[in-house]
Amino acid sequence: MVTLIVKPNPVKKDLTRKISRIKALFLRKKIAQGIEVVEQLCREYFEVHVGVAQTFQSAFQAHCYEHTLGRINDYELEKGSYEIAWQVLDFVEKLGQYQHSSPYLTPIPPLEIDQAVLRKRDLLHIKALQKKGMPVIFLQGSSGMGKTTLCKLYLYTYIAEYAYVAWISSGAGLVDALVASFFDENNQQQYTKQYKSAKFERIVKFLEQLDGKKLLIVDGLDAYDAFDLTMFKTLHETANFDILVSTTKAYTGDKFQTIDVAFFDEEQSSELFFKEHLSAKEDQFLPKLLGLVGNQPLMSRLVARILRQYKQWNVEVLYKFMRHSPLANTNWQIAAHLLEERSQDDKALFTHVLTLLNISDLSEQEKWVLMQFVLLPPFEIAWTDLKMALKSLPGFNKILAGSRSVHSFSEALESLTKKGWLSRDKATYKFHGVLQEATHYFFRFEVEQRWDMLAQVAMNLQKNYFEQKRFSEAHQIDKYLKIVLIRYE
């Protein structure tokens, strides 16, 4: 790992002087006055730096954060605590001397490079625009086009060019996600936009202190406003950021550049198919099958894994079934009705997913697992977090005895990954939004009957995220539950 050192700056010198003055107050037994100055120091300096130290997940942070910073939110209740004041002061002093040992400003999602098709043309296009002085780029396209994977490819291909990198999944809203990444605060959903704007200004001031070129990737920004666009410009101009934004909402302004993330061509789609199927051979019907599903990365991967798992289907039979069966025609009519305001590509994708669900021969365990994911936002979820949310369900072992234990749940996760319904990166799982939406419709009656229990798992997961101070992910659960609740009313 590259070791990066933040150079001394006037802020740290000023901090050292303030700490010396506060210590002098404490030594002279002026405790009330000293605590008041500590609180002021926290407001002026402590917040942003604590948040960044937290995201580095260093040994220093692990030792100090839980024992000291965890009590800051209750600090107003500790007015007379001489001991707490000294602990806070000691931590701030150490933090002022702290040297960052990682380029990651936020946790970065992994990439299974062996399963990805290298999109050289798109990567070169991004670099060409950046060389022209256009560092804020919107990667836009419909669902299933591989925009998130392209962002990961860019990050891991060019990470050596950046002193610092940050990744934000923006389902909770851009400002919420940024504030959550850098601040240790509860109940952020109650804060006004003006309040968050003030916080954002302080984040920018901190980022300005970090030397070198930086990269911000904002994944899944499907709703944005004028403030978000202004924020991109500010981060580039004042904090030296290159910015990639993946979105299904086309950008129509003239301040930033756009790249339309296109369908795979036949060669790329075939390459991905063979990577996923492993044992498949050349077949005259393969170009027809991949063309039928639009040469989309998501669908090319899914049909490959389904053919790999279900030996009774071959490329020719699956193509003819998806192309001409009465079931496919019925599913198209359903998609056209449900998604009447969406594009033809979205309707076709929804149709194909419904058709594949009907022939997938899922076990009861697998169906139950998929229903859990229907209520969870389509981002990477660690198995350890999901297992904890399940075990926290009142009476879980009694309600889900035997065939639905946590052990069998993990086995179903693995089988669903092999069949292509879930994607996995190391120990995290993700249910792609398009697959999730079609699955919700497919299991809509079962989801409605089991809503309370399914929602409880989601709320348990949210609670775990709050305890881990992963506020962006926690807030996305609230918003996504509301979306799912009204989706097919």
Note down, in words, how this protein is organized.
With 489 residues, the chain is of the alpha/beta class. It has four domains: 10-97, no CATH class; 113-260, 3-Layer(aba) Sandwich (Rossmann fold), CATH 3.40.50; 266-337, no CATH class; 364-486, Arc Repressor Mutant, subunit A. The chain is 60% helix and 7% strand. The radius of gyration is 25 Å and the shape is globular. The model is unreliable at 1-11, 46-80 and 184-190 (pLDDT under 50).
Throw out a few tags for this protein.
disordered N terminus, 60% helix, 4 domains, 3-stranded antiparallel sheet, alpha/beta, Rossmann fold
Number of domains: 4
> Count of DSSP E strands?
8
Name given to the CATH architecture of the largest domain: 3-Layer(aba) Sandwich
| CATH homologous superfamily title of the largest domain | P-loop containing nucleotide triphosphate hydrolases
The structural class is alpha/beta
Residue ranges: pLDDT <50 for 5 or more in a row? 1-11, 46-80, 184-190
Strand content: 5-15%
In the CATH scheme, the class of the largest domain would be Alpha Beta
Helix content: 55-70%
Determine the N-to-C terminus distance.
50 Å
Largest sheet: 5 strands, parallel
Shape category? globular
Mean pLDDT: 75
CATH names the topology of the largest domain as Rossmann fold
Secondary structure tally, helices: 23
Query: Gyration radius, to the nearest Å?
Result: 25 Å
Strand order, largest beta sheet: 2-3-4-1-5
